[in-house]
Amino acid sequence: MKIKQLNNPILPGFYPDPSICRVGDDFYMITSSFSLFPGVPIFHSTDLANWEQIGNILDRKSQLHTTADHMTAGIMAPTLRHHNGTFYMITTNVSDKWNFIVTATDPKGPWSDPYWIEGCPGIDASLFFDDDGKAYITGTRGEVSHDGTHGSQVIWIGEIDLVNMQLVGEKKTIWGGALTNCASPEAPHLYKKDGYYYLMIAEGGTEHFHAVTIARAKNISDYYEGYAGNPILTHRHLGKQYPICNVGHADFVELKNGEWYAVMLASRLIDGYHKNLGRETFIAPVVWEDGWPVISPGTGKVEWSYPAPELPATAQKPRAVRDDFEGGKLGMAWVYFGTPYEDFHTLSDSKLSLKLLPRSMSPELRKIDLSATKTDKSAPSLSFIGRRQLHANFRISANMSFDALSVNETAGLVVMQASNHQFRFERSVEKGQQILRLIQCTSELTGYPHQPHFKGVTTETELAKTVVDGGIIILSIIAEGQDYSFYYGKVDESLTLLYERADARNINPEIVGGMVGTMLGMFASSNGQESTNNAEFDWFDYNGTEQ
């Protein structure tokens, strides 16, 4: 069956920084995962329109260290490439030893443990294979002047020996971006076409002023000539009322017939300038004119849909609404917040059981020294399992069996944005009675907006509370844009309203920006105390629609 349209976003939800490659008739794409584990989800398609997740590249603790301290850490800006039968993924783990490569012969895995690249500075390292078999890394670094002071960030290139996984020779600065002293030149990707090397980067920062720019050179290590028509893609000039914003961080792919496409990140707005879904993956066609690429020809902006190329259709699997936790392994949609160094969950008898760990869902209560967590594999785990919000409107529900034994014990559902902005729909106990309450957690942040590290004051507000029976309870959250309503009861078809139309903008402050998206999940905590208690979930539903 012929696919008639490419509909954006092609990966809805918190899937930023896409990188794509083609191997024969197959396309593979990966995205950043930040502090989520497993890391770097990988997707497959044959038609560019429909994508199926086939695995996670970093699915072992030996591959990925990150902690549940702040969401904007961990894995940033991976690049996926294929050469001579081997897949390569290079990325930055800002929670560990920085830039590394993993390899596989099958994109589904297993992937190797990290090869850490010594002397590889900056973020967003990318890989390029030249026609002569040599391989190169491009990355970012602060330029050093003759007096030893660090100046503006620039893009560098260096040859890498992939047998010994070592950089060889000199690292040369090749470009500083299209604008003089531009903000955040990053995400470099290198391509070769018609005798030129093309260097495509992102600049302007990953928020509203994000942009894609390009330069070229005849020799790979020369200083690159910027295109007079830069930026080749941005939405910053369209204003804050335009429904797609933050467009940038692109990667090219060439089809077998010579057509080109670009994938990039962007954010959809929900009820004003609010980006609950974070940065998502979009696609647009590319043509070449006078030796330079034109993205989304005719309009110059990312559209909601494009005519699809003539490609074999990808088999589509219907997305299941309910997860009954069958089998001994969680589905690929589920992730942890931080590497799960403690075994805090089990799957048996078609139920998911979460231990009540001492670590609190509230950042204010964690008492964690952030300076000690960078490579600290003893950092306590958070008993949380979640999935990404994919739609502007959604309903999540779960059947939970849990009786709190002390006032410290809590379990339930959580809507989490940037980790210290959340709604917690939780059961606990007060004065010997089981209670159900809705907690709104927010922070007034200071410092650099993209890396808040919990500077500022975290505030928790109890929006509603009621006494409930013990044992099994069904919890349900219905989101209509920014209005969230909370229901509970024993029978899914006749639930009771606890709180109506909580304002999701209160947990989605734009000072945090669009670096991460909203996570929806289940949690259990004893809030600083030791506990042998568990919360058991019989099923979890996710159903979403667009506005």
From TrEMBL:
GO terms for molecular function: hydrolase activity. It comes from the Bacteria. Pfam families: GH43_C2, Glyco_hydro_43. Residues 322-543 form the Beta-xylosidase C-terminal Concanavalin A-like domain. Keywords: Glycosidase, Hydrolase. Belongs to the glycosyl hydrolase 43 family. This is Glycoside hydrolase family 43 protein. It comes from Neobacillus driksii.
